[in-house]
Every structure is written in structure tokens, then in C-alpha cells.
Task: structure prediction
Amino acid sequence: MVLDGGFESDWALKADVLLLLSAKLYSSHMTEQSRSRVFLWVLLGGGAFFLFFIAIFALVYFTVRSQQKTTFSGFGDKIAVVDLEGVILSPKDTVEQLKKFADDGSVKAIVLHVNSPGGGAAASEEIYREVLRIRDEKKKPIVASIETVGASGAYYVSSATSKIFADQASIVGSIGVIAEWYNYEELIKWAKLKAITLKAGEFKDTGSPTRDMTPAERAYLQALIDNMHTQFIHNVATGRHLKDDEVQGLANGKVWTGEQALPLKLVDQIGDFRAAIADTAKSVGIKGEPTLVRPEKERKTVLDLLFGDVSEYLPSRAKLMETNVGFYYLWK
Result:
């Protein structure tokens, strides 16, 4: 009986050992499976993230590449197109583009494609000077094609070209100077705030938005505006080969349609952009369809590409013009 009991006990012990080994093996197997699954998910997640990153990079890269236009566009004679768009705040980019094409021997003429209400007085003048230099010193034909609007500072620039085209319904003119800003003196009083200004010089804070101007300050600013207006009139007359008196009668800030501007000698021909290109090509001896070249466009940011143009929601220099004192050749 003892032997039988010992035999049974021995088998029970072996069974327990086998069960423990099986459990450990199963547990080890499950652990390996869990690790394999975790590794698989990490691999899949990492791969998906990598593919997403590559897709975004490719989107940005090819979008930027597609938006860029280099100045090389084949061989032979070319016509350069420079856009003058929006409010003129800085002359830098436009002047550099004009100078580059003026110095390029393969560019036989330049067309200034205008769609602008004007802008800063000095900025407009600098572009005008460069256009006049190309026309009179470089002796290279430069033509203005006014699209929707070519007013005030934009017309100032256009007046220096060899020839001005405009559509019948284009807005042209607005030979005048404007300076405007907000006065929030009453708002400050309502908010029980007090503006404090320290200055040396009677006219140092002329145009302060926290108080009314004195008669002397108003006369001072008006004299500046009148002087700029005289400059505007004289330079347009110079550009258009007219007498100052001829332009003086038109320098009342009014705008005209392209059709109305033609008999006033503000434009030379009614025609769209294609007409301006064709006429310019013919005038420089280019036969057939001319080769057009443009400057490189400004590269968009990644945020612009992913979320669209967000500039309208951000403060810009054009918007800040409305809150700061300045003098503008601007049609509003």
C-alpha cells in the first residue's frame, strides 16, 4: 500500500510539474505574442507617420516649385512682365525687378502690369524714378497696362512709361495727396484715461490721435501736402510730355474710366494686357508670339500651404496705414 501511495504521489508531483511548465511556456508564449503585437503596432504607427511626413513634404515642395517662375524662359528676344499690385508700401522689390530686366540684354521691352490704387508718396516716387531711368537712360521700351485700377501712386508710376494701355472700364487718375488718421480723444476721456506726451519742439507731436490739431499744425501739414501735390503734378507732366498747367486741371483727386482718360491724355490706347503685349512686341521687332518672362514669385510659408492664406487675419502695413500719420498717393 505504501508503494502504491508513493507511486500515486510521484505521478501527482510530475503532473503538477508538467502543469507548471505548461503554464510558464504558455505565459512565455503570450508575452512574446504581446511583444510582437506591440512591436507591430509601433512599426505600423511609425511607418504611417513617416509616410504622412513624406506626403506633407512632397506637397510643400511641389507646390512651392509650381509657384516659382524663373526669369529663364527659352532663348531669343523676350518681353519682361512686372506686376504692380496692391497698395504700394515699399519700392524695393519692384525697383530690383525693373533694374534686373533693364540690364538683361535678351529682354527687349518691359510691360508693367498695373492693378493698384497707389500707396506711399516716396515709395511711388522711387518706382517712378526707376521707370523713367529705364525709358530715358537705358532707352528700353517700358509700357504700362492698367487692369482694374491704376490710380494715384500707381498712375504716378505709369506716367513714366513709354506708353499707357487701359481697359475701357479701368479706373485711372486720382492725382492728389491724402493724409488721414483716427482721433480717439473722446474715447480716451470716456475710458477715463489720460494721454501724456513729453516733447521738445512745437510740432513734434503734430497729428497726435489723442488731441485736436492747432491751426498752426494744420497749416504745417497742409503745406507739406501741397508741396507733394506740386511734385506729383510736375512729375506726371514730365512723364507724359505735357505742361504742368495741363496736368494741374486734372489734379483734383478725381478718377476717370479708361475711356474717359483717353481724350484727357492720361492714357495712350484702349486695350487689355494681351493687346499691350502684342503692340510692344511689334514695336521692338519681335515676330509671332513673344516669350514672356516674370520675376520669381514670393514663396509661401508652410502654414499658408497647409491652412491657406492667413494674411487677412494678421496685421499688415497696409492696415496700419489707417492708424498712423502718413502722406499717400492713394485712391480710396
